[in-house]
Amino acid sequence: MAHSTARLTPWMGAALLAGALGGAVTAHAPLERWWPAHPASASATPSPAPVAAALPDLSAIARDHSAAVVNVTVAGTRRVAWSPDGRPQPRRRGADATDEVVRGVGSGFIVDESGVILTNAHVVDGADRVTVKLNDRREFSARVLGSDPLTDIAVLKIDARQLPVVPLGSERDLRVGEWVLAIGSPFGFQNTATVGVVSAKGRTLPDDSLVPYIQTDAAINPGNSGGPLFSAEGKVVGINAQIFSHTGGYEGLSFAIPIDIALKVKDQIMKTGHAQHARLGVAAQDVDQTLAESFGLSSPHGALVAEIEPGSPADKAGLRPGDVILRLGDEPIHEVADLPAAVGQAQPGDRVALALWRERRSLNVTLELTDARAPEQRATDTAQARQDTRLGLLIRPLTPREQRAHDGAHGLLIEGVSGAAELAGVEVGDLLVGLNGHPVDSAEQVKAEVQRGGKAFALQLQREGATLFVPLRLG
After folding, report:
1. pTM of the predicted model, to two decimals?
2. In this structure, are residues 159 and 131 in contact, taking their beta carbons and an 8 Å threshold?
3. How many helices (H) and strands (E) does the chain have?
4. Which of 56, 91, 223, 413 could disulfide-link 79, Cβ–Cβ 3.0 to 4.6 Å?
5. Which residues are catalytic?
6. Residue 189's pLDDT is what?
7. pLDDT of residue 454
8. Which domain holds residue 387?
9. Number of domains composing the chain
């Protein structure tokens, strides 16, 4: 079940993954001291009174854009067996096991007035039902159009029109020290605003992601995940995603996904249902002064290759531990955080040139990047959801993770209903396991059954752990 906010634990230095090996703050008043530019004298002309620099009107941002920030509630089930003394046991099938409902809460924001919403992938991971609550208290059942674990981005869709949307900016325009405003639902308190500054950019975290995070000290807590991070200009520049914490609560280190990455993933999901990412296949670390001197570099820069994934593009191109990557394509690699960002801008199949430093001399190699997704995910993505217009069902195969969540069940997940299916009472989230007495595992089987003719169909569904038959009549 998804957690509303991911938790990072302290780590010590070592190789960080790159290229997908795959890769409320109290606002203090300014301490102002003024003095003349030249020593004062009786004959000196009085200087005009100094004017303190004005802080941005963050209240206007909250007022104008809170309506486009949403609360995301998720619900799912897990199979739990109980021992005689009342303690939960490892999940297993059997009469002594029961379905336990688990819930989570997160945030999101509307990027299209037709009801397209961005949030974190970990917010909706494993959810059977996703509900979106707007600022005006309206609630909608949401469909997950796609989810990308490598960037922690998910795209939701609700059936609504003329919704308020957030203005979108760019992480490239952010400066360290600039004010930022986070809006979300920490611990379920909807539309909570917290303020901080940009603490750093391009942070690499030990989470296997491809994201160069924005670090802030805005207070982020469980439930803030997926909510927007606004710049002082009132534009969304990031999606609040993680915190560094010993306790699970806010300790001054919060991390947001740059909106530039999120929008790129969103566009791919809207077009194909999934996102593609390139893979280099190295684990790398920063180069400090001592390492730079030992390798004969003029200054500490680049990404030092610590490990090579067997069979990866880096392995096939002959990269070695000890190589320092200085450039990938047109992107200079100043530090290790630049490497996953550069790889993330490419696509699987792209041929890129690498500028390396090896054995005290420059070296150039060219390699072809591959797909960063796991094999089982790639196989699932090739089976796209299909619309059966006669029955009114939008169906897709279960992912391996969803199959495990349903105790290995077969069938097709119903992601949308219309027409005859909607009239018959079929619901989004139902599992279609049979049609007219025949088990179904693919859209092709459903299509073949429908093409046999007839206007009456018996849909065998699984809903919230129960099996039921739903009669459906065409015409």
Report:
1. 0.64
2. no
3. 10, 31
4. 91
5. 122, 152, 225
6. 93
7. 79
8. 376-473
9. 4
